[in-house]
Amino acid sequence: MSFLKKIPSGNVSALQYFRLMRYGTMILIGVVFTNAPNSFSLSEIGTYEAFMLIAGAASFFWVNGLIQSLLPLYNSSKAFGKIKPETKSPVFFNIFILILLLGFLSIIFLFIFKENISGEADNKFFGFLALYVFLVNPSHLVENIYLLKNKPRHIILYGLISFFIQFVVVASPAVLGYGVYESFAGLIFVTAIRFIWLVFLLYKYSSFIISIPFIKEYLHLGFPLVLSTLLSGSAQYFDAFLVKETYGKNYLAVFQYGARELPLALIMASAFSNAMLPVFSQGKSLFETLNLIRKKSLFLMHFLFPLTILLIAISNIVYPIIYNSEFTESAKIFNIYLLLVISRMVFPQTILIGLKKTKTILWASLYEILINVSLSIIFIYYFGMIGVAYATIIAYFFEKAFLIQILKREKIYPGTYIPIKPVFLYSTLTIIVYLVFDYMIFTDFI
């Protein structure tokens, strides 16, 4: 416990550090896979990426949608009212049961359509996949329980321990000369530990009472967000499947190693957004909340935009070194995804979710996926894999512009929650640096 006291506090920072640890672990595992003494072949890496792709596609939308719905509803539901910090709330247990049920449905879906989804009839592959889907989705509740119980130091400590274990058990097979299925076993092992810890937290913080009125209220708020996340988030899965079907599993690995945005932007922006949602139910005025979003997002920009510019400048050199020469083209895809930092640094969706206007986000996501899918199919024909990345950029920019316009109709103007001048200057400089380095200096694969 004395160690916990030395960790910087703050829910926003803690959740950002947690997401960073998760992303960093994923990157480090990829580095080991490609550079270890007994490194995996491109085909084995493709199998691992296909595993993670299918697992994510089966559940990302309803997990993220339900978690986002939980954060503003936790202290303001009609069923349970305001929850005292010392009270064991039935909220967590009800959501746990709901996630388990949806997990079972996802597993059934995967087994029914397994050959259509992956082109493989490998029962061992799908056995690992089903067990992983069952365990991993409820485990996302752990950091959010700590968030809602205002225990930021516990979030960081939990992340440090669990992601260290994950790195060791998943990456070790590539060092010790084993195969990718041993990495799957390691992934199941660490996910099982997280699941067991979740059960312990439920026993500590939640009463085991099922409330149908709460579940109805929760699904009413969450269903638009689930659909929105399905529409918006499915674009990345569609892009990956499109590349896989067009170029094969080996190129899927090349695409996936590049299609990762700034290692910090998505993590810190999504963590910031989620951590701000409970503020809307804490009694602050809307003006105070918008001003808080504006100030804290500006702090993010001063850190993330310079880092983005630096990565654009060096990625073409660094990528083949960190991974290997087979992943040179990944740098081009990565640089395009880095441009997403521009749209990530504005947060109209946070305000709409906080105000419980989730149906608007659903419409924005519908338009985004239509644009993304249409342009991906067209651009992959003319520009190859990088065309798929360009389609994503255009679709995400449109979504944020649409949501900003919706807020303007509600008399919530961009200047109240967006530091407009810094965004414009940073965005212009980032685009210029991208054009110089990818179209004038490093022109391979363009």
Care to describe what's here?
The protein is mainly alpha-helical. The protein has one domain (2-441). It is 79% helix and 0% strand. The model has no long low-confidence stretch (mean pLDDT 81).
As a percent range, the share of helical residues equals over 70%
Structural class: mainly alpha
**What is the molecular shape?**
globular
Output the number of helix runs: 19
User: CA-to-CA gap between the ends?
Assistant: 53 Å
What is the domain tally?
A: 1
Order of helices and strands: HHHHHHHHHHHHHHHHHHH
Could you tell me the mean pLDDT?
81
What amount of the residues lies in strands? under 5%
Total strand segments: 0
Query: Would you identify the regions where 5 or more consecutive residues have pLDDT less than 50?
Result: none
Major sheet summary line: none
Q: What Rg do the Cα atoms give? A: 21 Å
